[in-house]
């Protein structure tokens, strides 16, 4: 399999970056929802912690000065942050790689409207995979004002993901079945 994209389709590097991103996002949601379900006070990942002092967005009381992101054994919230930073880095690598290799030709089954949907979904997915980690990091560091942006970006991600999966599955599976 060629490394670069071309007439043959997507190359090995593009496919590897795509599936690494997918795996990181799946892991991120598993860890994120586990952190959210943890009612111990050590992992809500946003807002004020238990106790009187600010939790600096880490769901903790006043025991943390908010300056060190990782200040002890790796817990679920730390893993959540690391996965978010990894996703951000993968997106940057994808955009950089995309600027150095041509796209393969469009699938001939895609109409011009379908092509616009695929392109818009791709742009939205990449944008949300930048916004979500950055706002998440801001939340961890104590800027709770960005919570609505973080949540809205999650919603936008799921809408874009539904459009992406709808186009992929609709073209590959549904047409074969009808």
From TrEMBL:
GO CC annotation, single: plasma membrane
Superkingdom of source: Bacteria
Segments traversing the membrane: 12-31, 79-97, 117-141, 147-169
UniProt cross-references to InterPro entries, sorted A to Z: Cyt_b561_bac/Ni-Hgenase, Cytochrome_b561_oxidase, Di-haem_cyt_TM
Membrane topology: Multi-pass membrane protein
Signal sequence bounds: none
Region feature Disordered, mapped onto this chain: 39-60
Localization terms from the record: Cell membrane
Domain Cytochrome b561 bacterial/Ni-hydrogenase: 10-175
Keyword match Transmembrane: yes
Keywords, alphabetical: Cell membrane, Electron transport, Heme, Iron, Membrane, Metal-binding, Transmembrane, Transmembrane helix, Transport
GO BP field: respiratory electron transport chain
Pfam families to which the protein is assigned, alphabetical: Ni_hydr_CYTB (PF01292)
Keyword Transport belongs to the record: yes
Main location as per UniProt: membrane
UniProt similarity note: Belongs to the cytochrome b561 family.
Name this polypeptide is given: Cytochrome b561 bacterial/Ni-hydrogenase domain-containing protein
Species the sequence originates in: Nocardioides agri
Taxonomic lineage: Bacteria, Bacillati, Actinomycetota, Actinomycetes, Propionibacteriales
